[in-house]
Write a structure and sequence with these properties.
The protein has 239 residues and is mainly beta. The protein has helices at residues 49-53, 58-77, 81-86, 109-112; strands at 5-11, 14-22, 29-36, 39-47, 130-132, 141-146, 151-152, 156-167, 170-173, 178-185, 191-196, 202-208, 217-225, 228-237. The strands form three sheets. Strands 5, 7, 10, 11, 13 and 14 form a six-stranded mixed sheet that branches. 35% of the residues are buried. The model is unreliable at 88-138 (pLDDT under 50).
Length: 239
């Protein structure tokens, strides 16, 4: 399984979160989800059995992953939100045409039942920003959760966050980095909390996780410093 992409796209004063990921060779599917206000508006599932049958080529899979993600983002930028919602009845191959409107959703019932589907993924780079994750050693900005524990619905937790900048192998604290913590889910309203790191690159944010027994939930953490961005996503397990 390869890492995927996350992008926030704003249109008409609304921020839509687009997540695209590879479900792995055991379930050879490229899955894209479009969120708004923590709820899933649309999804697109594209099988890639043909890549496996023809001799697996990871570079081709990465290309398809990027293309599907970019087309869905382009559809939102073009105001085709309703098209994304309606086009679930179109054939799977519709997304492969040249227009952004072909980023078609499909039924997402199966994905809502799979909380691990919101596992951490890498973000897609956008103009003017450099992205990394806490697992990307050597990147310009890294974001780490200290004393990390499993997150479960209904708990009150304190996220201890560390942000660091890297330059030619040397790491230094990223002071005054802007931190955004979003709690997202398919069965509850989203929430956002904002903070800033201290001179040691540390921030502590207290969050009460919503209580839910069905559906999916995740915490999305974003750090930004001097135009560089690092992101993390962690699953919230149902109560």
């Amino acid at each position: 399984m390869i890492t995927g992409y996350n992008t926030d796209v704003e249109y008409g004063g609304i921020v839509y979160h687009v997540q695209t990921e590879d479900k792995g060779l055991q379930t050879p599917i490229i899955l894209s989800l479009v969120y708004s206000g923590g709820a899933i508006l649309a999804s697109k599932r594209s099988p890639y059995d043909d890549l496996i049958a023809g001799g697996f080529d990871q570079a081709m899979l990465v290309e398809r992953l990027q293309r599907q993600h970019k087309l869905i983002c382009a559809a939102i930028n073009a105001g085709r939100i309703e098209d994304l919602k309606r086009m679930g009845e179109r054939p799977t191959g519709a997304l492969e045409t040249a227009t952004a409107a072909d980023a078609a959703p499909v039924d997402d019932a199966e994905d809502k039942a799979d909380p691990e589907g919101m596992a951490p993924t890498q973000p897609l780079q956008t103009a003017g920003e450099r992205f990394s994750t806490s697992d990307d050693v050597g990147e310009a900005l890294t974001l780490t959760l200290l004393d990390e524990k499993q997150m479960r619905a209904g708990e009150s937790i304190t996220l201890r966050i560390e942000v660091a900048k890297h330059d030619e192998g040397d790491a230094r604290p990223a002071g005054k980095a802007n931190i955004t913590v979003k709690v997202l889910g398919s069965t509850f309203q989203p929430s956002s909390t904002y903070s800033m790191t201290d001179s040691y690159g540390h921030a502590s944010i207290s969050v009460t996780l919503p209580t839910f027994k069905t559906g999916r939930g995740a915490i999305f953490i974003r750090a930004e410093s001097d135009g560089e961005v690092a992101e993390l996503r962690r699953v919230i397990h149902p109560a």
